[in-house]
Design goal:
Elements: H1 4-15, E1 19-24, H2 29-38, E2 42-46, H3 53-64, E3 70-74, H4 80-88, E4 93-96, H5 102-112, H6 134-144, E5 146-151, H7 154-158, H8 160-164, E6 171-174, H9 176-182, H10 192-208, E7 211-216, H11 221-230, E8 234-237, H12 240-259
Parallel strand pairs: 1-2, 1-8, 2-3, 3-4, 4-5, 5-6, 6-7, 7-8
The structure holds 3-hydroxypyruvic acid (3PY) and magnesium ion.
Length: 262
């Protein structure tokens, strides 16, 4: 069953109105609860760069259930079974990393949709309250489930028109760090060559009527304002690890200053 936060995410993607999320890198249900309670409209759980696995996704889905946030999972790749399992344990959608071709985008969409649009298999699972809401879920899932293609390489930028032309791709999400690696300027996420690439992606999204998303990995108000002004609507700020790291260091810095600790 799709709850209000999941429907709000779907509506924001369709209307291209700004919606702010954050990122879970620790696989910790406690961190996810804290971020959900802080008011992020969606949380992206990373299964590409972590050891979380499907059980980890299920635990996070349980932790944030009813806390007003929608769960998206960054799967490891456009894999039919992994995407199916993430949705079945309660994710509202998936973010697929390193999409470079229309074929990869089509595989992801097919995995996320029931026939005839796709190849998702039916079951009784967490997402339909263990079968109690099978009919409702089955009838609405294809419209509600979210599929976002991450664009993180030069090849993804070069093929953006064909990727966005795939029906069922709701939008894109730029991974600035992988983009910087792909363009030969690792870590320089604001390098002029990348800014040009980002702009071409936002322009392509506008032409195709799809949401443009960006992970602002270390956010500040200026970067957020700039992202909204440039036309991004699906925006991710920071990550649990970044927020913990920054506050822990700031607190300790103050303590060191107060007690003159070297
Ligand atoms: C990147 O910057 O490459 C990312 O994947 C951020 O989520
Ligand atoms: Mg990446």
């Amino acid at each position: 069953m799709f709850n209000d936060s999941e429907l709000r995410l779907r509506k924001a993607l369709d209307k291209k109105t700004p919606i702010i999320g954050s990122w879970i890198q620790t696989s910790s249900p406690a961190c996810a609860e804290i971020l959900a309670n802080a008011g992020f409209a969606w949380l992206g759980m990373d299964c590409e760069h972590t050891s979380a696995g499907i059980l980890g996704v299920e635990n996070i889905a349980r932790a944030i259930h009813g806390r007003g946030t929608a769960l998206l999972v960054r799967v490891s790749r456009a894999d039919t079974i992994e995407i199916r399992q993430c949705l079945d344990v309660g994710a509202a959608g998936v973010i697929v990393p390193m999409v470079e071709t229309a074929a990869q985008a089509r595989t992801a969409v097919a995995a996320a949709k029931y026939p005839p649009e796709g190849v998702r298999g039916y079951c009784f699972g967490r997402m339909n309250d263990w079968g109690s809401h099978f009919d409702d879920y089955a009838a609405t899932a294809n419209q509600s489930v979210v599929v976002i293609a991450m664009i993180e390489t030069r090849a993804g930028v070069d093929n953006i028109e064909e990727i966005l032309a795939v029906q069922g791709i709701d939008g894109i999400f730029i991974g600035p760090y992988d983009m910087s690696g792909s363009y030969g300027v690792p870590g320089q996420t604001q390098h002029p060559c990348l800014k040009n690439a980002y702009q071409s992606l936002v322009d392509a999204c506008r032409r195709h009527g799809k949401a443009a998303g960006q992970h602002i990995v270390k956010s500040n108000p200026e970067k957020l304002n700039e992202a909204v002004a440039l036309g991004y609507s699906f925006i991710c700020l920071d990550a649990d690890i970044i927020l913990i790291n920054q506050s822990a260091r700031a607190v300790m810095e103050t303590a060191k200053t107060t007690f003159n600790i070297q």
